[in-house]
Specification:
3 helices; globular; 8-stranded antiparallel sheet
Amino acid sequence: MAADLENTIYMDVPAGRVVIEMRPDLAPKHVAQVKALTRSGFYDGLVFHRVIDGFMAQTGDPKGNGTGGSGTKIAAEFSREKHLRGVVSMARSSDPNSADSQFFIVLADAPWLDNQYTIWGKVTSGMEFIDAIKKGDAARNGTVSNPDHIIRMQVAADAEKKS
């Protein structure tokens, strides 16, 4: 079965291209938000500001420090999906309905996150490129000095039209 290009993200990082299959069946509002931000170029150049080895890599903050966003919060869309390696989920504050633009990719199974964060996708190829992202300082909650960044993020349907 061919990938649904309208619900696939190409995320280019320093080590290579990561392909993310979005899950509008699980989180339609989050997928719509990520697609709109991607299409506007919002994610291009943003850093992986928090990366904890063996846990997750977080990005999507225009401030680069974990405090920023696009300014549009989304209500939680929790599901029965599990936070397994390669799952893409929204970051948020202590308010379950505070997800905005920040997201993280799970580097190893993290069952304690299940039903706490909105899962909106899964890496289908290029996980080795996520594994290669510069890790943060564990003593500083994963804060990364001189972090790696997203070179470009595109909805696959748009990228295929251009090629």
